[in-house]
Amino acid sequence: MKRIGLWFLYLFPNLVFAQQEPNLDRYKTTDQKLKIWLKYANEVLDLEDYPKLLSIVEKGISLSKNHPAYRSRFYLYKGVAYEFSNNQYEKALVNYEFALKYAQKARHLKNETSSLMRLNYIYYSLNQTSKRKELITYIKKVLDTTKNSYTQAVLNGSLGEYYLDYSEYESFIHFQLKAINYKKLLDKSAVNNENIGISYSQIGSAYVKMKQYNKAIEYLNEAKPYVKNSPYVSAFLCNYYLQCFIPLKKSDSIKKYYNLIYTYPSKKDSLFLNLSFANRSMSEFSIGKNQINAAYKYAKKAVLLGEKSNDDEILMEANAVMGRVLYEKKEYKKAIEILTLASKNALTYDKESFVIINKKLSQSYAALGNWKEAYHYNEIYSKYNDEMLQESAKQNIANAEARYQNKTKGQEIKNLSIQNTVKNIQIEEATKQRYFLIGGILLVAIIGLLVFNQSRNRKKTNQKLQLLNQELDEANKIKARFFGILNHDLRSPVSNLIHFLHLQKESPELIDEETAARMQNKIITGAENLLSSMEDILLWSKGQMENFEPQHKKVAVAVLFEETQKHFSSADNVKITFENPENIILETDENYLKTIIRNLTGNAIQALGKMPDGHIIWKAWNANNTNYLSVTDNGSGGTKEKFKALYDDSEVVGIKSGLGLHLIRDLANAINCKIEVDSRTGFGTTFTLKFCHELH
Asked: How many angstroms separate the Cα of 129 from the Cα of each of 134, 136, 160?
């Protein structure tokens, strides 16, 4: 079966959609031009537009005469274009060799790694055995001299495929597992995960060829989570599962994975390739069950899909199984026609398929009584079958020798272990003498360490004292802030109470019974509100004694407005209204905001003074996902200098002024609230609170 395109994922992990050809005249330096041109080549390669890619890389090669790293990459892409344009392996080979040459000249390990990987496959495809062996020797040297995880991952995988091509499955699995371990050290990207899954699936495929189907299923199961997001690889994986479950005769699993292949979206060529292979597997399964009509149906689908796949190898395999089916149907002439077509490239792709095809050709000619042709194809079958048996025997002998050598080495290791034990005893005696000398040195070192430790502890103590002084300063600042809060929140209601009491005491004749009753009710209400406010502020202060930090929670503006209205219910000559049509809910510290609102309201009342028709309006609204509060009075307004404390940290307003702007400023900053002032002389003042990054 055709190998999954693992190399492609390694070479080009970050692909993008192709764009318009860049204008190189816009770039000054050659390096800038090469960088943008290489990016453009990557984009075209992603679209698999190989004719266009060839013209692009030719220009890149011309531009990069004095830049071997870029030149290596362009030659590599030129090789890719030829390799995947109707398998022009000879032309691809020349360019891959140039890519390797310039990568070595530039000492560009990644380009060298990619070139070596492709050359390994091309030498195999062109049957250049001696060159491939030399290449493998060089790859092993590279692996011995580098710790680069990417190179180790790619080239160990390439070594594994070399041994797979010669059916040396144990060596293949050994190197492929090494490759997987290095891949796991690379980034956790989707592409790298997919590469790990492909390696596991290739190991599963090797166990299929060794007819160890349950072991193959284990590795295919390992591959599953890594390739779950890749329909292309998952379709290949389903075919590998089919190869396991067909010989195990597990009908439910066979049906499941055969149907599953049809569900994976993929590029047309890949889709037809996988579907052709699946139907070929089902045809072989039906032949084994002597269901020839079903086998013919699947084989027909395999051939049709193989033709659409534009892949000679998959079409060869489909024709091979169709020839077998026609032979079983006793349609020998048609079988010979199809098998002859399949045999043309079979030896290039798969020796085992070539042997089976020639065996069936011999049997078909024999069935027609054409003994001469039957003998001819039987000779071919015997020759290559004997070669396969010899290779298998050699491999068995090599494996046996390897096991023997391992056993011999094990014994040598055991003998060396005994010798080491004797030497260790001698070393222990010498070590004891050293210990006495080291003990004296350690004693001196400990004394020095104690002196050093004492000095360090002194420094730590000084640092702690400095920290305590800083905490004391902060505590004093917090105390001053709470006194400010108490002053500004309680001054106004206490002042109103005193005013009412003085009026009642000093001018009782000015008050009639109705006015006296009304004022008495106001005094009682004001006193109750004052008590509630004092209790609220003191409880909050107690909770904030250690850390003056805001505690954010959801706060309904309606509740804040209601409490503010009660707090200032005793204010004379001032009308306070509240507008909250959207029922705004804020994510903030309730007590911080409540203190800000009280101070701003108190400031507004002071600004109005004895002014008739004094009016204060509190509003709440949301605009562009941001919450706002504002308070507006119709007083006399003021200058910017009057509100300087809101913006200048160095400006401090006296407590008796009643503005408390420094307090408002600090509390607003703590809850991430921005304050803006709009004051016009003769028209009044508006304070706007903007709540940044509010949550709802």
From this structure: 9, 10, 16
Q: CA-CA distances (angstroms) from residue 282 to 392, 403, 507?
A: 28, 38, 113
Tokens of 235: 């379709």
Q: Which residues have C-beta within 8 Å of that of residue 204, sequence separation ≥ 6?
A: 216, 217, 218, 219, 220, 223, 240, 244
Question: What are the pLDDT digits (tens) for 228-258?
Answer: 888 878 888 999 999 999 999 998 999 999 9
Q: Is the dihedral of CA 170, 174, 180, 186 positive or negative?
A: negative
* Spatial separation of the C-alpha atoms in residues 594 and 122, rounded to whole Å: 79
Reference 182, options 160, 209, 165, 205; nearest CA is: 160
Per the CB < 8 A criterion, the answer to whether 579 and 612 are in contact is: no
Q: Is 685 helix (H, G, I), strand (E, B) or coil?
A: strand
Which residues on neighbouring strands pair with residue 619, listed in sequence order?
Answer: 579, 630
Distance CA 657, CA 541 (A): 23
Is residue 14 left, alpha or beta, with left meaning phi > 0 and alpha meaning psi from -120 to 50?
A: beta
DSSP string, 318-330: HHHHHHHHHHHTT
Q: Is the CB of residue 637 less than 8 Å from the CB of residue 555? A: no
Q: What is the 3-state secondary structure (H, E, C) of 601-669?
A: HHHHHHHHCCCCCEEEEEEEEEECCEEEEEEEECCCCCCHHHHHHHCCCCCCCCHHHCCCHHHHHHHHH
pLDDT in tens, 543-580: 454 555 788 899 999 999 988 888 887 777 788 999 99
Handedness of CA 515, 517, 523, 529 (dihedral sign): negative
* Angstrom distance (rounded) from CA 225 to CA 245: 20
What are the backbone dihedrals phi and psi of residue 690, each rounded to the nearest 5 degrees, phi first? -110, 120
Tokens of 248: 């195990």
Q: For residue 18, what pLDDT band results from cuts at 50, 70 and 90? A: very low
pLDDT digits (tens, 9 = 90+) for 459-484: 887 888 788 777 777 656 655 555 55
| Number of residues written out for the chain | 696
Tell me the β-bridge partners of 684.
680
Q: Which of 602, 560, 567, 590 is nearest to 673 (CA)?
A: 590
Helices (H), strands (E): how many in the chain? 24, 7
596 Cβ contact list (under 8 Å, min separation 6):
664, 667, 668, 673, 689
Mean pLDDT of 427-438: 75
Q: Name the token pair of 192.
A: 């790298």
Six token digits for residue 635: 């007083």
Threshold 0.85, pTM exceeds: no
Q: In this prediction, what percent of the chain has a pLDDT beyond 90?
A: 42
> For residues 289 and 295, what is the distance between their CA atoms, to the nearest angstrom?
9
C-beta of residue 392 within 8 angstroms of C-beta of residue 166 = no
Burial environment of residue 97 by CB neighbours within 10 A (0 to 12, 13 to 18, 19 or more): middle
What DSSP letter does each residue of 117-130 carry, written as one string? HHHHHHHHHTT-HH
